[in-house]
Design a protein that fits this description.
The chain has about 170 residues and is of the alpha/beta class. The chain has a single domain, classed as P-loop containing nucleotide triphosphate hydrolases (Rossmann fold, 3-Layer(aba) Sandwich). It is built from seven helices and five strands, in the order E-H-E-H-H-E-H-E-H-H-E-H.
Length: about 170
């Protein structure tokens, strides 16, 4: 088993990649957006910090339970700020499994393009411009951490997904 944390800005393709990795490994996805939805919260409109803390605690519990049950776990979240990543490293250590960080990098131009496309299609909940600006301004990239780096344009590429899944399996074997 491995605990894999997605990391990156909104609209980078983290959820897409998390779902593809879940199919390839196989793994269970712990999505903080879905947990917030279950709690009646809409992250795209802004969520108070104390509510995010509660969602994170719930996600940690679910992730730990799934790992204890013998499943690979892929955490679908922004993975920022850094203390969020440290919390997931602690969950992996407590569960006795390797931790992997997958950083999906996206340019501001591609992120803007995806936001506009989403607003036209209504395929997912909108994220307000204010929330996006705040997220961009406060995002703490894992530049000094051992992360698998993925280009946002490749999150649905079967070859890329297979290669990442293989790297994750090798962590388990090592």
């Amino acid at each position: 088993m491995t605990l894999t944390l997605m990391c990156g800005l909104s609209f980078s393709g983290k959820s897409t990649l998390a779902a593809r990795l879940a199919e390839a490994l196989p793994a269970r996805v712990v999505s903080l957006d879905l947990l917030n939805e279950e709690r009646g919260l809409d992250g795209g409109q802004g969520i108070p910090l104390e509510e995010w803390a509660t969602t994170n605690r719930m996600a940690h519990e679910r992730g730990h339970e799934l790992l204890e049950a013998g499943h690979h776990v892929v955490v679908d979240d922004t993975g920022s700020p850094r203390f969020i990543r440290e919390g997931w490293r602690d969950v992996a250590e407590r569960s006795g499994v390797p931790f992997a960080l997958v950083w999906v990098q996206i340019s501001a131009a591609l992120q803007d393009e995806r936001v506009r496309a989403t607003r036209r299609s209504l395929d997912r909940h909108d994220v307000t411009d204010a929330v996006l600006r705040e997220h961009r301004a406060t995002f703490e990239p894992p530049t000094d951490e051992d992360a698998l780096i993925v280009d946002a344009r490749c999150t649905d590429d079967p070859e890329q997904v297979a290669a990442i899944a293989q790297r994750l399996r090798s962590l388990q074997a090592g």
